[in-house]
Amino acid sequence: MSELHPLAWSVYDIADQIDRFKESTYPENQHWIKEGDEGLEKARLTLLGDLEAMKRQLQSPEEALSDIMYFPADLASLLIIHDLNLPQLIPPSGSISYDDLVMSHNTQTGTCVEEDPLRRIISYAITKGIFREPERGRVAHSELSLLLRDSGLFELLGVSLQELLPALLRLPDAFTSPRESIEPNETAYNIAHGTDLPMYRFLQQHPERAKRFGRAMSHGRHVDNHFLQQSFAWAKYDSPGMTIVDVGGGHGNAAAFLASSTKHMRFIVQDLDHIVAAGKAMLPAELRSRVDFTAHDFFDEQPVKGADVYLLARIMLNWSEKYCLKILRALVPALKVGAKILFYEHVFDATAEYRGNHKEKW
User: pTM higher than 0.70, yes or no?
Assistant: First the structure.
């Protein structure tokens, strides 16, 4: 029997399970993805992995490699879409003619974009599910492009393309430097942006970029927070007097998410002063009695003594081993007997293998 047959049966069985859940719970929309239990989420990720595996088996090696090689074209179209602010210029419902879209852009920006190249970029984006043409000569939002009208997701796209992509393109230079560096100011980001400062210090000198970066990271964390919620027994610690310190917690998105799903535990979000100031302003009023913000550099000794859990969510991936150890040593004087240090990171298995779309507890 072909390897496709077991995958096909797995796809059928899982699809049937998901369809039955959708029909009984959310027949009209996609909320089932967020509301399904842990078992359903595991099934969904398994299905995605199976579909990806089937695709790989149905492609020649040349076709699979081409998918990777042409990825820069996807990024280029996204970069133009972002820089021209197209998601905001196209109405959220209905459609707009290309002529009116060009006129709207040129009037608002004082620049000149021609209709023909704009059509080409949008046509390419449509092949990726971004925008749609309900009729010839008119463009409208697709489900994907409509998400980009959300300011947080739009800013996350901007940070990815304008802050991080230039650094990724200079990774070869960083790899071939005369010596291996573990310092945060000797990275591909430094080469790309022409600075001797660590990235976060550099952004502090550019307030608007720093604000955008903070908002974008908060949105990115929001997308991933349900994995954080599922990966630890928060309910076990949800009692009066329990304190969770979110070290390097940014705008407090994770703390707010966890506070919304618990009743008693208290959260203290720590980050640099300009970041926690923005976080305080964004925190919903109903959570202010249980979520506090304090300015703290996690390389300095931890000022909150005797907390029950010190959470480091998506922190260690940004630092070399030297600085990860420094972060941990700064926590030691604050730890009481029985305290936990909880890491939340994306990690690879000891043996790397093709995984497609898959995340699990570890």
Answer: yes
